[in-house]
Amino acid sequence: MHTTFIRSNRKEIKAVIIDLDGTMIDTAPDFLVAINRMRSNLSLAPIDLDLIKLFIGKGSENLIRRVLALDFDDARQTSQFTTALASYQHHYAIINGKQATLFSGVREGLLALSAMNLRLACVTNKPIAMALSLLEQNSLRSFFEIVYGGDSLPTKKPDPAPFLKVCADFAVLPRQVVVIGDSSNDAQAARAAGCSVLCVPYGYNHGEPIQNINCDGIVATLLDAADLIAA
Length: 231
Fold this sequence. Notes:
Elements: H1 3-8, E1 15-18, E2 25-26, H2 28-41, H3 49-53, H4 60-68, H5 74-95, E3 101-102, H6 106-115, E4 119-123, H7 128-137, E5 146-148, H8 161-170, E6 177-181, H9 184-193, E7 196-199, H10 222-230
Parallel strand pairs: 1-4, 1-6, 4-5, 6-7
Antiparallel strand pairs: 2-3
């Protein structure tokens, strides 16, 4: 871990990029409902929350492929993919935010970061319409100058392009930006972009221990992240 890097460069930090699912909001219960309604449409048995958490974070297309792979061979996955994705998106649009809850320390952390006059962006692999709705439902949208979803740009995390786009939008250097996320997607994208990265331990890191991620520190909450940046 390299938390001393963030502390020693506090005066250089100008902006923070924050993930959504698994970092600010526990959306896994929404995924559970939407996925199992989609599976019911395909006459498949429901799956449980712990399994669904392993599939969250790499975008809707990857999520559906992983879910279909539980029951179908490659050929059947391909033939069912378009129908399954449309069904999932339909059900998710209905359920989006209704089962989700804000993680502890999120609002306090955003307030603390804002009080430091840091510019804030939210970058998620969730489709932008769903992301904006979720932020609005939880009264978080006003904290962020920029929100990019998985369909906002040509590529999504772990590609560094969304983070580099935020740097360009804010007219800051990557080394002046801290990324906060819950998974290897965030860390890989941050490292490739040249940003610092802090990880929260309570999210959906594809079933892998957060300690295995190459990040600059593990913080218990978003408020702890703000305190570390301010230290």
